[in-house]
Amino acid sequence: MRVNVQTQIQKTKHRSKMWRRRFTSLPLFFSHLQQVRRADELKICQAFCTETVKPPVEGESNSGRNSPFVAFVLGGPGSGKGTQCLKIAETFGFDHIGAGDLLRKEMHSDSENGAMIQKLMKEGSIAPSEVTVKLIKKAIESAENRKFLIDGFPRSEENRVAYERIIGAEPNFVLFFDCPEEVMVKRVLNRNEGRVDDNEHTVKERLKVYKAITLPVANHYAMKGKLYKVDGTGTQEEIFERVRPIFASLRLST
């Protein structure tokens, strides 16, 4: 008789434990159901909602104006990017904005940044990102065209981050002219444009800066699938024949 009582007690305890386990697992079960339902709702939303939210542009209200199409053009000094930008602009209807040209224009103005920019360019250094980006922003906003080649910018990761913060967007793509160092030095010394930074010492310093801080920018855009690499050796016509198919494939409104 005692054995039967003890057995009954053990069976009762076992059933009690089973029920406790079931009730304990119910919240986890319903939580899992909610997670599945939310995941399904998210998939449905992603399937039908194609519009993305664009980061706001610093210092600019929503005017409803079409966003500009921007291509960064990168390459070392003497890589031919400036010459090719002129050909691209003429052939495909882009506005050519040279970051270096904007800085040189500002350098010869009476602005408070002029003397500082001149000193930096003589040393082969890079102007502050805020100054360069705001000059680019002003050039874009004052143009009637909405297609732009930004020549020689960004030259550093700091430039890139400043541009995306102030403009509020990434470039549509990046054109990169790959050229051997000896070819670039020879081109710069032979162009004789009267620029204060066109001497052998300054060119070599600029090349050091280019390798250290500009190439990582090109690598960043390559990782994002936005970089078009072009062989920068040969004549101007030969290089442009390598560039032409890239822009000919674009479907842009005029």
UniProtKB/TrEMBL annotation:
User: Which GO cellular component terms are attached?
Assistant: cytoplasm; mitochondrion; nucleus
Annotated GO molecular function terms are: AMP kinase activity; ATP binding; UMP kinase activity
Q: Report the Pfam families cross-referenced here.
A: ADK
Tell me its EC number(s), please.
2.7.4.3
Which InterPro entries has this protein been placed in?
Answer: Adenylat/UMP-CMP_kin, Adenylat_kinase_CS, P-loop_NTPase, UMP_CMP_kinase
Top-rank taxon of the source lineage equals Eukaryota
A single GO BP term for this record reads:
UDP biosynthetic process
Q: Which UniProt keywords apply?
A: ATP-binding, Cytoplasm, Kinase, Nucleotide-binding, Nucleus, Pyrimidine biosynthesis, Transferase
Q: Provide the reaction this enzyme catalyses.
A: UMP + ATP = UDP + ADP
The text of the family note is: Belongs to the adenylate kinase family.
The entry's protein name is adenylate kinase
